[in-house]
Amino acid sequence: MPLALMISCLLASFSTLAVCDDSLETCGAGCTLSAGSRGLLQIEKTMGNQKETTTSTTWASPYYMMTCPGTQAMTTQSMTEADYDNITAEIQALYNSLPSTCTPTECPQADWAGCVLRMAGHDFMDYKDGQGGADGCVDLTDADNLGLAECLFTGEFGISIADAYQHFCQSVSLADFLVIAAEAVMSASRQHVTLEDSSRSTIDFKSSFKFGRTTAKTCEWAHGRLPNPENSCSAVQETFVESMGLTWGQAAALMGVHTLGRAQIANSGYNGWWSSALMSRKFNNDYYVSILAKGWGPEVAVAGNAQKNQWKRVDAGANETGLGKEMMLNTDLCLAFTMDDAGTVELDAATAASAECKCTWGVPVAVSTATTKYEEGRFCGSTNIPGSSNFRQQRAICCGEEFDGRSDAAIDCGLPIDPKGPAYESIKKFANNEDAWLRVFKAAWRTATGNGFSLRRLRS
User: Whole-prediction pTM value?
Assistant: First the structure.
């Protein structure tokens, strides 16, 4: 029986919501499933019936959804460098089997890599007071986790990491496997950068990887722990700084995973690429360059949902037709910018316009190295960058040609010449120096994926 059907049948046996029809393919669980109901919709319906259930056979967590041909290891007892390499090779083979082309509306490798990283992030972001962390458990019925089933087990673009996990599940815990899978896609995505420019640094996760994470079968307490982007930097502080123990610089570094993939309405309610679509499959520092070298305006009620508000690119280089829709969340831009000059009001797309915060941008001198090294000399989409004596024209290319007057300073979110975001200095450093970001990122990644566990180094 195909894996996808097997999983759907397994789920069907847990729920009264399974579709039954004598004319359809039989699951063997007392019902049959139509071809259209074997995918994510069927799984979501089944999960919806499990939301309040925490018994060991029906709780909707990755442990139960990703099947194992034998007894699944709860804690990895031993792991060598060769074991790590074998897992990485299988994950990267799946990644490389996807089309490498990107268009303004689609980039399969970026979407798949972004999903795997999102799973790892949602896993470790629930850590608080010694509970949770990278334990391989998320509540798949939580709306914040929509879309994770595809890369985990149902198959995004027909491919899931469950295909690889079956080969290691009897000796490697799912918790360890998910961390390695995330590192594998970051490494593969980094190769796109170094192949184009051999002067860019490679990235090595294996030398600092430690194993021994124990998989949690259920984690009902994790429901609602993920940071809400609408809450701006208050959410970043609560989750990354206070609960996970990161500095603001490390929190900003970890957010750099947004350079891969995009936000999709079906999953998060938000919409767009953090980098341009063509850049979204490359693990580089473009996320930071984009924050400081582009202009951003508030977009309220994304897709008509008043609970979802974001920032969209509004500068001279904005080109949804050619580059795709570029966006940032409050939790991205707030790291560098605030709504007011004093730095006391957090950035908030929902209320920005009423607060006369219509454009978030910084002066070009702050990212002069970045624009030269990484943006082919472009700032806010223009290679004709006005000097410091022409501040109003700088605003015009970042916020719109109509904002070139002296009185237009009122539209600025804070002071472009002196941003007050809690991680502004780190964002500026990472934008201008990719190696600085990679160093801090690796340290932050080790902390985030190791919280709550006593881990051991790989054997050579």
Answer: 0.88
99 and 41 both lie in a single domain: no
Return d(Cα 453, Cα 158) in angstroms, integer: 34
CA angle 95, 101, 103 (to 5 degrees): 125
**Is the Cβ–Cβ distance between 270 and 258 less than 8 Å?**
no
| Within-domain flag for 418 | yes
Asked if residue 44 and residue 99 are part of one domain, the reply reads no
Q: Which two tokens stand for residue 179?
A: 């961390």
Residue 36 sits in the same domain as residue 176: no
Residue 66 carries which DSSP code? S
Token pair, residue 183, equals 């590192």
- 9 and 158 fall within a common domain: no
Residues 439 and 304 in one domain: yes
Q: What does each of the 460 residues of the chain score in pLDDT, given as a tens digit?
A: 444 444 444 333 333 233 333 223 333 333 332 222 223 333 443 343 333 333 344 689 999 999 899 999 999 999 999 999 999 999 999 999 999 999 999 999 999 999 999 999 999 999 999 999 999 999 999 999 999 999 999 999 999 999 999 999 999 999 999 999 999 999 999 999 999 999 999 999 999 999 999 999 999 999 889 999 999 999 999 999 999 999 999 999 999 999 999 999 999 999 999 988 989 999 999 999 999 999 999 999 999 999 999 999 999 999 999 999 999 999 999 999 999 999 999 999 999 999 999 999 999 999 999 999 999 999 999 999 999 899 999 999 999 999 999 899 999 999 999 999 999 999 999 999 999 999 999 999 999 999 999 999 999 8
- Asked if 163 and 286 sit in the same domain, the reply is no
Same domain, yes or no: 82 and 119: yes
Q: Give the residue numbers spanning the domain of 199.
A: 72-226
Closest CA to 112 of 264, 331, 269, 276: 264
- Upper half-sphere CA count for residue 182 (Cβ side, 13 Å): 27
User: Alpha-carbon distance 57 to 65, whole Å?
Assistant: 10
**Dihedral pair phi/psi, residue 297, rounded to 5°:** -120, 150
82 occurs within a structural domain:
yes
